[in-house]
Each structure stands twice: as C-alpha cells, then as structure tokens.
C-alpha cells in the first residue's frame, strides 16, 4: 500500500476504443493497488452519455479523473474534451490525453481545449505499463483532486 493512499475511492473514466490498450491500462492500474474504480467507454458518444448520466449510464458515478484517447469512433476525443471543458459541472475534472499521436498540432490543440496533460502512448509494452503507473502515481497520490460534490 502507498503512504499517500487516498481516503476514498478514486473514480476513473477511461475513454479508449482499442481493446488491447484498454486491457493494458486496466492491468497497469490494478497492479498498483490504488483504491480506484475504473469505468470504460469505447467511443466519444458513450463517454459523454456516461458523464451526463444519460441512457445506459443514468447511474454512472462522476469520475475524479478522465483518461481520454483522441482517435475515437462516433465523436472524437477533441469533441469530447471541448464538451467537458465547456460544461460547468464537468470542467474541473482533470482530463489526461493518452494517445498514440505525437503531432505538435494535436498537442497544441488539446491544450487549447484545456486538457490537463498530454501523454503519447509508448509502443514498447513495458514502457506503456510504466507510463500508466506514473499517471496513477501522479494523479492519484500526489495531486489533490476536488471531491465529487465540489462546491461551484
């Protein structure tokens, strides 16, 4: 167990369409033994439905952290990010872009849309796992996140 172990469950929304990447991310997050719940949506429309508690996601839990891929079906990661950051109830949720793109244009565009950080997925399997664990270490043990019911 970590010294800075959170006192509450940390809710993570993973928005990723690649099943292999989903499996790797889930495995890396579970192996660190941080007290978290991970929810997965596989396209941009589902991610926004989850965040807005619509349809099949009516009982969803507000995430403390969002891991967002950019290249998603139905609605791109940029569109999802823009909607999150324009929404008064969602804009404070940190959004970590986790994508395969190394394009400077993509990096600038996501920061212009107020992403909290941009991480390029490593190709090497071991490095990919290390990167996911470092995301978890930083965002879930070092950073202080607002509670789910944060005052506006």
Task: Summarize the structure in words.
- The chain is of the alpha/beta class.
- The chain has a single domain, classed as Response regulator (Rossmann fold), CATH 3.40.50.2300.
- It is 38% helix and 16% strand.
- It contains 5 helices and 5 strands.
- The protein has a 5-stranded parallel beta sheet with strand order 2-1-3-4-5, with helices on both faces.
- Strand 3 (65-68), helix 3 and strand 4 form a beta-alpha-beta unit.
- Helix 1 (19-31) crosses helix 5 and helix 2 (44-51) packs parallel to helix 3 (77-86).
- The chain is globular, with a radius of gyration of 15 Å.
- The mean pLDDT is 85.
Q: Please report which band the strand proportion falls in: under 5%, 5-15%, 15-25%, 25-35%, 35-45% or over 45%.
A: 15-25%
User: Cα-atom Rg, whole angstroms?
Assistant: 15 Å
Unreliable stretches: none
- Distance between termini? 33 Å
Looking at this structure, what is the CATH superfamily? Response regulator
Class from helix and strand fractions = alpha/beta
How much helical structure, as a percent, in the residues?
25-40%
Order of strands in the sheet with the most strands? Answer: 2-1-3-4-5
Overall CATH architecture:
3-Layer(aba) Sandwich
* Count of alpha and pi helical runs: 5
| Strand segment count | 5
CATH topology: Rossmann fold
In round numbers, the mean pLDDT is 85
Profile the largest sheet.
5 strands, parallel
Could you say how many structural domains there are in total?
1
CATH class: Alpha Beta
